[in-house]
From TrEMBL:
<feature type="signal peptide">
    <location>
        <begin position="1"/>
        <end position="26"/>
    </location>
</feature>
<feature type="region of interest" description="Disordered">
    <location>
        <begin position="35"/>
        <end position="90"/>
    </location>
</feature>
<keyword id="KW-0732">Signal</keyword>
<dbReference type="InterPro" id="IPR039254">
    <property type="entry name" value="Rds1"/>
</dbReference>
<feature type="compositionally biased region" description="Polar residues">
    <location>
        <begin position="327"/>
        <end position="337"/>
    </location>
</feature>
<feature type="region of interest" description="Disordered">
    <location>
        <begin position="327"/>
        <end position="359"/>
    </location>
</feature>
<dbReference type="Pfam" id="PF13668">
    <property type="entry name" value="Ferritin_2"/>
</dbReference>
<protein>
    <submittedName>
        <fullName>Ferritin-like domain-containing protein</fullName>
    </submittedName>
</protein>
Length: 493
């Protein structure tokens, strides 16, 4: 037995040495025949003046102003300590129904191309028939309905906290603190640039909303270390991005949707970057998730402490919190050793505790498959979670004061919880809930794939307690809201 193993291992080693790299299954004849090779030699050690190339002096026209300049002074943070002057979400003058009933497919949506050729006359050369906003009408980059207004106002609340959050972490943690977490001055500059990006995003949304657009508030953050700051950032940008994907294609203003998609694509890059800084797989999923506006507002509101008295309020619902008692800790060599309540607080997106004993931490480990130090990509020999893992749950009662000035109240119209809904990528998956006590229970992480080879439950993703397992898809996911008992985040991977 040992002899056979040795011979096979030797043969494989010889083949690996002789074959060209890289080797990819399905490409047996992909030998590299390029004549160029990467030069090898000493790197430059001295740097002279810039090379002289032809150029002219150019002057840029005045730039459009930003609604918020770069931060130069102190900002206040911490919990709200006063009394709210109003409570509850914004309401319309009349509400027509308690829920939207499911309907059959749109009878006009019947197009199917059977021969791969245009089916209708082309309006102009090189342009097929169809599309929205393609008839030459001058674009109007403003919201065009209450749905548009409330959706973009929510997006602006998100942009404002990101602007403050990124700057706050740089202000409260020193360069030495970042170095201890494996992050350099260049990483700090990168985060500072992300904050500058947020000034542009906030300006864009403010301009499309008009003079009643929400303004920046003060915030109450949960982190105590650089690692926890980065963890919170990757969670906050996760729901910020997904919250926009959820409503983007429902906007009445296609012009606003166009502009918003070009800003949220940047936020997707930010989320990946923070995952790289945290040392977890940067993008283990194939598709990004879209969630309803009330979900994004539920995640965001607990971290806003106070807003100006005349601040524009939002119509969206705040659901009760669903907390993961054994939330996988990305700071551990063995996430399976995560202890109960190993987060820094009891808010849904609070980061995992990074101050675990050094011998249990993966931050400074120098071993492939076990390190979680900052990197372009990391593979974990022991994943953060896995199908079949028991997930222990605790959910709050409705009626809790949350959000700016404690002026919003959590609520639910659902019945008793029976299922856990897992919302990730393109999939909505339900698992049975086993209730073990008053507002406590457990379920098991589901198996299943979006397509073959793509596990559905991956990355930072969304979970909800529901009273039924209603069938829904990404485009009509908001119809789950009347069935939601509580909302949470799960650190899968």
């Amino acid at each position: 037995m040992f002899t056979k193993t040795f011979c096979v291992s030797t043969l494989l080693t010889a083949l690996a040495a002789a074959a060209p790299a890289p080797q990819v299954a399905g490409y047996p004849d992909a030998d590299a025949s390029f004549p160029a090779t990467q030069p090898v030699g000493p790197a430059p050690t001295s740097f002279g003046p810039d090379s002289q190339i032809p150029a002219i002096h150019t002057v840029a026209p005045p730039a459009p102003p930003r609604v918020s300049s770069d931060v130069t002074g102190a900002t206040s943070h911490g919990p709200f300590s006063g009394s709210p002057t109003t409570t509850g979400a914004e309401k319309a003058s009349t509400t027509l129904a308690q829920m939207i009933p499911p309907l059959p497919p749109n009878p006009t949506h019947t197009y199917y191309n059977q021969n791969g050729k245009p089916q209708q006359p082309a309006p102009i050369p090189y342009t097929p028939f169809g599309g929205l906003g393609t008839n030459g009408t001058e674009p109007r980059y403003m919201v065009n309905s209450d749905f548009d207004y409330e959706s973009l106002a929510l997006g602006l609340y998100q942009e404002w906290i990101e602007l403050d959050l990124f700057n706050n972490g740089l202000a409260v943690f020193s360069e030495e603190d970042f170095l201890e977490a494996g992050l350099t001055a260049e990483d700090r500059a990168y985060i500072a640039y992300m904050a500058i990006q947020e000034t542009g995003h906030a300006t864009l949304l403010t301009n499309m909303l008009g003079h009643t657009a929400p303004v920046q508030c003060t915030y109450n953050y949960p982190f105590r270390t650089v690692r926890e700051f980065i963890d919170f950032n990757q969670k906050l940008t996760r729901w910020g991005e997904s919250g926009v994907w959820g409503f983007l294609n429902h906007l009445d203003s296609r012009e606003a949707a166009q502009m918003l998609s070009q800003s949220i694509a940047t936020e997707a890059r930010q989320q990946i970057s923070f995952r790289q800084m945290l040392g977890v797989p940067a993008m283990p999923e194939w598709f990004e998730t879209g969630i309803p506006q009330s979900w994004a507002w539920t995640y965001l509101a607990p971290y806003i402490s106070e807003c100006p008295a005349n601040q524009t309020r939002l119509i969206w619902q705040n659901f009760p919190a669903l907390l993961i008692e054994n939330q996988p800790n990305p700071n551990r060599v063995s996430p399976n050793d995560t202890k109960p309540w190993e987060t820094v607080g009891r808010r849904v997106a609070d980061p995992s505790n990074s101050t675990i004993p050094p011998e249990e931490s993966c931050v400074n480990v120098n071993a492939t498959g076990y390190s979680c130090g900052p990197a372009i990509s990391r593979n974990r020999s022991e994943p953060l979670s896995f199908p079949g893992r028991q997930v222990d749950l605790y959910w709050e009662l409705p009626g809790q004061a949350v959000g700016p000035n404690n002026s919003y109240v959590t609520s639910t119209s659902a019945g008793a919880p029976k299922f856990v809904a897992w919302v990730s990528q393109l999939n909505l998956t339900y698992t049975p809930l086993t209730v073990t006590g008053e507002h406590t229970g457990f379920t098991y992480q589901p198996a299943g794939e979006v397509y073959e080879g793509d596990p559905a439950v991956n990355n930072t993703m969304f979970v909800a307690l529901t009273d039924s397992d209603v069938f829904l898809t990404p485009f009509n996911l908001s119809m789950i809201n009347p069935h939601v008992v509580a909302l949470g985040l799960y650190q899968a991977g």
